[in-house]
Amino acid sequence: MTDEDGFVYDANRAVDPLGDLDEEAERQAKHNRAKVGSARPSSLLYTYGPGSIMDLPQFTIMSTGLDDWERIWRRRDSLPPVIHAPRLKGVVRMALRSNDVELRPHPWQPKKHSRSAEGNDLGVPARVFPQWLRCTGCDLLGKLSQFDYKNTHPFRTDLATFEHTKCTGRSGNRNRRPMRRPAVPARYLLACADGHLDEFPYDLWVHHGQPCVNAELPVLKMTDHTVGKGASAVIRCESCGMRRPMNEAQGEAGKKKLPKCRGRHPHLDAFDHRGCRHQTRLMLVGASNLWFPATYSIIVMPESQQEKESDLADRIRTTLGERLGKYRENLDMIRDLLVDRVDVTGLSDSELAAAVEAACAPQPTPEEHEERFGDWDPVDLLVPEWRYLLLDISGARVEDPKSGLTLATRQRGPELKPEITRVLAVERLRKVNALVGFTRIDAMDRAGDLQRRLAPLTRTRRPSWTVATEDRGEGLFLQLDEDSVAAWEERIGKSDIWEAHRAAHERNFNRRFSETAEKVKADSRLKPPRYWLIHTFAHTLIRELALSCGYSAASLSERLYAWPEADNRDPAAGLLICTTASDSDGTLGGLVQLSDPERLQRVVADALRKAQRCSSDPICAMRTPQPPEDFLHGAACHCCVMASETSCERANRFLDRRFLIDLPGSNLGYFSTDE
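That's the DUF1998 domain-containing protein sequence above. Prediction below.
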């Protein structure tokens, strides 16, 4: 069937593992257990979200779209929990073109102990993908229905497996007693730049696009004697004897031999009714570019009065729905309907009436959301955080009970670099992250900002919710002197090294942003010199802080406030190094302790000193992109500055040690050199 949102799918094939168990229970039949594994909320957002492939001990699965998650939530009488973050919710609504999007956590409930039953009705639904498996005993290559699923132990999900029940081994001796042998996923897939993903058509591949001449359902085998060396497998048809290696599908020449994309979204179990104009490319199940999340995140700050009023009106509108217009003039009825859902007990009638009027105001249309989002700058998410962090703190410590943000002032050590003008210990913070879609092959900021390349999370074009996580932790905030940064930035803009970076970025932009490049100037997407400076400084600090704070470098992340003055936006030059965790206890204070004046000045001094030397010097120190090179870093490598992907917000782009300190042959460093 084709729904009104343009997806072709079969509603009878919906993923409902708990519903399947209920049906089996009614027939008094024993069935395999539903749950097959577990993952942390952060990994389910950034690594294994809807549409991604997760490796389990014996097979791989794909988390389904949020339509199937909604079925899990509906099994409970109570309303699903929501995460309160109005500033982030507004951006998510723009990105998804929907006025009613809420932020919900993953469907999960903690257990009192490992064998207790609470929360068994909650979980992330998934389907086995890919559904071509290979027997480890005889190399039989077949679809899921040809193998037997075994998962009978309620507390050992790692034992869940698919088995070939009548395996006779690779010799094919039929007189040999059949054995049960485990089957593993066949590791080849087809993907396209618009986020579609499909099974590899092994039967058509081995027969060069034609049906087998000897069998309607041919027997296929996959042999692979050099695992780990690309597409090294060979597909063989036992029915007709034809064989074809998978390496023919690799490279530019291989693309021409692959079929065109069918527009499939396996996480939605649907096809795009418009099809797809792209040619497919060969992908491996474990490829790092198979799934890139598109996320937005904020550090929750205390709300202004205007933000509180806007949030109250929005909650009234979404809670009452169509009843809002019906009881608009009846404030007593409004109060009754909002009991236990929206707290309005402290509002006078006039204040409630004003909130109701605001809730009744016309909402933006999808076209208006589209226009706003096109003009929106992601920096706008950071501006309120920067402005709050610059406010004077009355006393030594300030705590906001609603947001949980707790800041403490720190004196500057006498030997701290004079370019650092402000230090704050962020003793407690709350970070909220929301998923709006995903891309394949290229991350969203590398995909030309084309909205059509963002694969949807639901079959509904305007979803009512999306998944989000709520992390708590601590951090360390540093502000640089704006006047010195501005003067340094002006000097850098005239240098040959900056011109080389600018030219490399233009080449990179034109090659990767082929469709956007015609309408957008490459320089408008180039991060300013101060961003390169603060980004490089953050990485050097992360490396040094990890030696003393008790957290690994991969557990520390950066939040950069680096932009020049613009309309309605003051210039910013600062950074926040933080660590967060999804549990309620957050973190243990090791990072905040390093904000002590003596400790901090030692950390900064050691970080800058170590940045002067790299084990790859002089090659690293002198690295400058030259035509036709288009890499987006200079004197930076994994030996000196680059960080793990969990720490860096820009995938190790826009880094150069020469902007941080003077290196041999360069005098562009921002920080003064100690004599």
